[in-house]
Amino acid sequence: MSELNLCSRRQADKLISNSMVYLQGKLVEPVLGQKVDANETEIKIQLQNGEYKSVGELSDDKGETVVLNKPKGFVSSQPETNKIPAVRLLSRENIFTPTQETKNILKSGNYLHFGKRFHDENGVSTLMNYAPAGRLDEDSSGLLIFTKNGVHAKNILTSLDKEYLVKVEPAQSLSRREVEMGMTSLPYPPKWDLTFLKRKGNRLWNDTKALKPVVDAEWIEEGKDTDGRWNGEGLMRIVLNEGKKRQIRRMCRELLGLHVVELKRIRVGDIHLKNLPVGKWRPLTRKERESLIPKD
């Protein structure tokens, strides 16, 4: 059930153990680790009221995935020395203006459990056992998703588009890292033509595997000098369907000759940052949760 992207392994174990899983109309014995054919489509769940639903229709994960507006200065993954993990911001105090749906999730007692995982001087309790689904480096900000749901995590990492706003300026010189990689120069910044980023075959320096074509790329704002000419600065919108480490920053320098001044993620799939304040988090809405269930 987990490998078919029907639900997480933990959720599957719980459903099978509770004798709620039916295969082609027959109750599955409560024995964990059983296998079914990869083309099986007749897996159903019997709810307490006797109603049958497919696993993907279940909605008992109301608090298993949340979204944070990550500020700069926080790292998304396990921190190195003197780095602050973004999960520390998932505190009760940082919930963004709870909607009635969020209040119901908190009142249920089944989700959004807090604990003092991090021992800092303030002793702040944060959400327990949530992991980031994707990365957003220390110098970047914006939408960062945390989840305990394996199906959600897999779909976010492998299937969904990620949209970014990228403020740039002309790169002045090679960085030490670029020199060490063997680069001798950077390309001249293009003015408005970003269409080549949508083509196949673009590569980052020394990478053997080509990048996937970007889903979309466009200039939103163009910086002007005192004579009204483009000064190389501006704001771009870039949509990716993959997420290599520091990919946008490297693309801008190595393919466009532009240095990223600010980078902000504003969307993952159908989940938008919108008016979520910096440093605040919220659970997903029902519609957003449903968008993370694989359609195939």
TrEMBL record:
GO biological process, one term: pseudouridine synthesis
This protein's UniProt keywords: Isomerase, RNA-binding
A Pfam family annotated for this UniProt entry: PseudoU_synth_2
GO MF, one annotated term: RNA binding
Occurrences of domain Pseudouridine synthase RsuA/RluA-like (ranges): 65-253
Entry-linked InterPro entries: PsdUridine_synth_cat_dom_sf, PsdUridine_synth_RsuA/RluA, RsuA_PseudoU_synthase, S4_RNA-bd_sf
Superkingdom in the source lineage: Eukaryota
UniProt key word Aminoacyl-tRNA synthetase: no
PANTHER family per UniProt: PSEUDOURIDINE SYNTHASE FAMILY PROTEIN-RELATED, RNA-BINDING S4 DOMAIN-CONTAINING PROTEIN
Protein name: Pseudouridine synthase RsuA/RluA-like domain-containing protein
UniProt organism field: Chaetoceros tenuissimus
Source species taxonomy: Eukaryota, Sar, Stramenopiles, Ochrophyta, Bacillariophyta
